[in-house]
Each structure stands twice: as structure tokens, then as C-alpha cells.
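In the current project phase, we have settled on a layout for protein records. A sample record is reproduced below.
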Amino acid sequence: MTAVGVAVGALHRRLGRPGQDAALAVAHPDLAVVVLAVADGCGSARASEVGAQLGVRLWARAVERGLRAGLAPADPAMWAAARAAVVASLAGLADELAPDRERAIAEVLLFTSLVAVVGPGGGAVYTVGDGCYQAAAAPPVVLAAEADNCPAYLAYDLVGEPAVGHLTVMPPSPRGVVWLGTDGLSTLVATGCPELRALLACPRSAAHPDRLRRQLERWARGGDAPARLTDDAAIALARWGDAP
């Protein structure tokens, strides 16, 4: 079972700005895996929400191609090939979007990337930039941005400043839960927010297609209490077997 949720943070709501995060979950029953992806567009960019939406789709397609070519999720070569394919697509888009290539990159194509392949046969999480995730039985991980809240973006590959990617491999397991989140959730994860832990662990969150989004929206609106999500947030979640 899979589910995604995306919400515009309270600060963006007050400023009348669109959400800049994206999430995607794609099941491939014939491969016995699910591909998850979340992306967070650069907050100061004019239209980075476009890049984030493109990014999750480009990553999902590139990873699927690698899997169908026989590469394993734990193989760094699969992720290197997928990354190269996504960067090549971004290069083509940058050339088409504006005469000034670097301007197109800065305005549209800056986004962080968290991508996972999960299933009973094992899996992996690959990250470029900040955010948070949980890989099956391992504790949640919070990825911090660089100094001055400047995360790494995949599109830096196009200007000769490639960002470092990190690969986490998951062993085979007949059951499990994996989730990816953008950095709008990082504070809640780092502080051990019990409501977020319960949301991500509950089987209904994967079974109901809109439960994650509705809860993120509640936290972003706040109501009688201060909003818990001041920044945009996106989650992609997968659950398989009889996970606890």
C-alpha cells in the first residue's frame, strides 16, 4: 500500500505563495517494488514548484528503467545511472525554458531529492539535499541543510557544482514501512512529535489515499493553536506485509 500527502505551509499561505513541494508513489507489481519520491523546490525561486513536480516524475521513471534493466536497488550503479538520466532531462529542460540557461535553472529547476525503492526483497533510499526519512526498522533520519539553510540541489550538477548523494540500503524483509519527507517535516521528526509518529505508523495512513494530506493540511492551518507546519511539507509512504 502507498500514500502521499502534500500541504502548503502556514508561512506560504500568509504570503499567498504556492506550495513548492511534491510527492509521488508508483507501484510496480511485476517488479514487486514501490518507487517513492519527494522534492522540495527552492523557496526563493520564482517557479521551483514546477521543478519539484517534474523532479519526482523524472526520478520515478529513471529508477524504473534501471530496475527493468536488471539493476538492483542496493547497487550504487543503478542510482548513478538514474541520477545521470534525471540530470540529462533537466539539462534539456533548461535549454528549452529560457535563452539564459542559468536563469532557467535558478528560477525553475532547483529542488531537493529523496527517492526510495522498497519491497519485500529489500530496497534503498537515495538523497540529495535536506529532508527526512525512515528506512524500515531503522530510526528516522533528519538530513540537515548546509550553512545558511542552503540545501544541495540536483541541478547544481548542471553548473559544475555537483551535490553529494547519499545511499542507504535496506535488507530484505517480509513486512515494513518506509516514508520520505521534505524538510518542512524535519522539526517534527527531530523532536519526536507523537502525532506524526502515530500518523506514519498507522495502517490507515497507507490504506486511505487522502489521510496524509488532510492531516498535513490541519497542521498547516493551525486553528486555535499555532500552525505546526510553517513550511511546505510532502510525504510519500509505502507499507507492505503485515507491518506493525
